[in-house]
Amino acid sequence: MIEAILAGLAGLLIGSFLNVCIFRLPRDLSVVAPRSFCPECEAPIAWFDNIPLLSYLILRARCRKCGKRIPVRYPVVELLTAAAFFCAVWKLGLTPAAFKFCVFGAILIALLFSDLEERILPDEFTLGGTVVGILFAVVVPMRYGIMHLFLFTLRNPRVLSVAESAFAAGFCAGTLWLVGTLYQRIRHREGLGFGDVKMVAMIGAFLGLQGALLTLIVGSLLGAIVGLCYIWFTGKDASTYELPFGAFLGVAALFVGFFGEVFLSWYGRLGA
């Protein structure tokens, strides 16, 4: 439990950095320099006003310099990242698998809020995350999948794991791209951004084919239900409303990644 608590504290710090990425990457700004500043008055933020969660509470959600309200997104991202880190280490211990899911959770949280705010899914997290997910397959073996059937003569489990991760990334991204292309040709308007395609590749690289396909199903259902309810309540035009599909994919991937194994083991016991 001590390790999980320490991981949660580390998650708060990472969440603070993710907030910087969420604001700066869609605007093509460096995440390294300049130091943190207020988005409204652009005044530099002192270190004692940049402590995760604590500074937000002490400042009462307002900038010390200009008094403008600090978006609630900042503490939410920090809390979610801390929760993801805590759960990963609490469930998996101090293992490479726990580190993998800490990274996966951080990437998803950044993409989720970036898509909600700017309708942009930065390549640093989608394409970069795909590479990271495939690299993790070297030290954290993927579950038995389709590549084990095609490469059944191959005895190296690390190579099989990497092949499984890469295939899941390519297959899921390619399938979603094909669906989006067909939709555009039939309806003569874009129905799916290429950022969503790259995000699905990242999810496939981390979760494998089964996890990525389940994420697509859950994310699509969630997006359809929430989107239709939002359009109905706000009276927006369904033909022109741009649904932040990446945000729903992020929520679905977090659910599948962090709770999928628990659900499957519970379901297996019921069927036993």
Structure description:
- It is a single chain.
- Helix content is 71%, strand content 0%.
- With 272 residues, it is an all-alpha fold.
- It has two domains: 94 residues, no CATH class; 145 residues, no CATH class.
- Helix 1 packs parallel to helix 4 and helix 4 packs antiparallel against helix 9.
- The longest helix is centred in the C-terminal third of the chain and has 41 residues.
Total beta-strand segments:
0
Largest sheet, in brief, is: none
Q: Element order, helices and strands?
A: HHHHHHHHH
Strand content: under 5%
Catalogue the unreliable spans.
262-272
Tell me the helix content.
Answer: over 70%
Shape: globular
Instruction: Calculate the terminal CA-CA distance, rounded to whole Å.
Output: 31 Å
Mean pLDDT: 84
Layout of strands and helices, then pairs:
Elements: H1 2-24, H2 54-58, H3 73-92, H4 96-118, H5 123-139, H6 146-150, H7 157-187, H8 194-234, H9 245-271
Question: What is the compact description of this entry?
Answer:
With 272 residues, the protein is mainly α. The chain is built from nine helices and no strands.
